[in-house]
Specification:
Blueprint lengths: L2 H7 L9 H27 L9 H20 L2 H23 L3 H6 L1 H20 L2
Helix pairs in contact: 3-4, 4-6
Length: 131
Amino acid sequence: MNTYNQYLDYKKPPLSPPAYLFGIVWPILYVLIAISYGFIFYKAFKGEFSWKLTIPFIINLIANLVYTYIQFRLKNYTLATIDILIVLVTIIITMVLTWSRYRWVFYMQIPYLLWVTFATYLQIAVTILNK
């Protein structure tokens, strides 16, 4: 069963978006992430941004990458909830790290933060409703 059909089969909370919306939102967010995080990694390679400070960016990318596998392949909703909380917290940390120096990177993360905050609500609800 593909992720689209799995999502349709979940017991979902109020405010759940239609499944097709994920296919519209995520590509836009991935472009914003690629541009802003790519810039941070570029600056780190040039020695203009501390590699130590890139750790939350790296953790965010890894947690974001493995979320779908955990949720839809492993069907481990509790672990997926922990994972999405890691994504959410690391977005906030990356925003704090970029606020004073690269304000445009901070602003590019706002849609990502808003969507992941909403997705965290959905994930927690799905975890509770589909036990």
